[in-house]
């Protein structure tokens, strides 16, 4: 009898975190990066996909001045922690024009991939777990 939980079976899991929250709801913005860092440290393949207002978090200058709670870490520090842990950051290309963002000039260096909606679909279909914030 296997006494360890299924999620500890030694096989890598793919986790997709879909981030639709943005600067208008800062209290919701740090947890996905923190959770992504923890999961990546547990050897999960973690992808954060930013769409809707979430794309604003990847805009230069936004995360540097945003805190989830007063006196807390700046969001850019959570982003950099997630990157160091191995989390992949995807930004939804179709959402960028609605916020006046140019992917060539307006996004932070930590972004790995400017993606299509079909890329999100692919991630969701192959992911073991999909969460949204």
Automatic annotation (TrEMBL):
Give the source species. Answer: Ectothiorhodospira marina
What is this protein's name? Uncharacterized protein
Q: Which domain of life is it from?
A: Bacteria
Instruction: Tell me one Pfam family matched here.
Output: DsrE
